[in-house]
Amino acid sequence: NEILVSQTHAHGGEVADGMAAFANAAEDPCAGGLLIEMPDGTCDVHPTPGGAAVLAGALEAAMP
Questions:
Q1: Alpha-carbon distance 22 to 33, whole Å?
Q2: What is the pLDDT of residues 13-40, one digit of tens each?
Q3: Burial class, 57, CB count within 10 angstroms (exposed 0-12 / middle 13-18 / buried 19+)
């Protein structure tokens, strides 16, 4: 990820950090309702509507 970020910045781009956005929104993205909870109590990697909103906010913040 560091290489992707450095190269993107070197070419004038911005990078949205979804992991940081999730960390700022909830200490535990699963318990915080940001990821889809599976029947066994674990969480899928896919976001809930609330998690998608957090990711969309990160994208909006990275846009000029």
A1: 10
A2: 999 999 999 999 999 999 999 999 999 9
A3: middle
